[in-house]
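Subject: for your reference before the review

Hello V.,

The reviewers asked for a structural picture of the protein, and I figured it would be easier to keep everything in one thread rather than splitting it across files. Below is the amino acid sequence we used in the manuscript, unchanged from the supplementary table.
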Amino acid sequence: MQKPFEVSRTPAHNSAVVLHVQGYLDAHTTPQFEEQLQAVRDGGVLRIVIDCEHLDYISSAGLGILVDTYRELLPKHGEIKVAAMTPAIRDIFDILGFSKIIHVYPSVAAALDAFDSPEENA
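And here is what came back from the structure prediction:
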C-alpha cells in the first residue's frame, strides 16, 4: 500500500533544517515539496538535509527540484545533502549521476555532522 506523501521539517543544531519526506515524490507531489524547500530558503536557511528514509519513489520532477535547490544554494555558500536513502532510491540517484553533485549520507546525523566537517567544507 502506498503511503501518502508528506513533508515535515525539523530544525537542527547547526543552522540546518531537515526535511523528512515520505511516500512518492512525483509530478503530483513535487509542488508540495518545492513549497517546503522554498519556505526553508525564504527563512534564510542555507543548510538543508533531505531525509529519505521513508521515501518510496522519486521521479525526475523530484530530482530536478533537488538539483535546482543545490544550484540556488551554491553561490550563497549553502548546501543540500540527502540522507538515509533506501537502496532503490540510492540506485536511481547513482545511475543518473546525482550523487556526484549532491552528497549522500547513510543517516541524517551523518549528513548534519558533515556540515561541520572541515574536509567537506574546504
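For the response letter, the relevant points are probably these. The domain at 6-115 is CATH 3.30.750.24 (Transcription Regulator spoIIAA). The chain has four helices and five strands.

Happy to draft the paragraph if you're swamped.

O.
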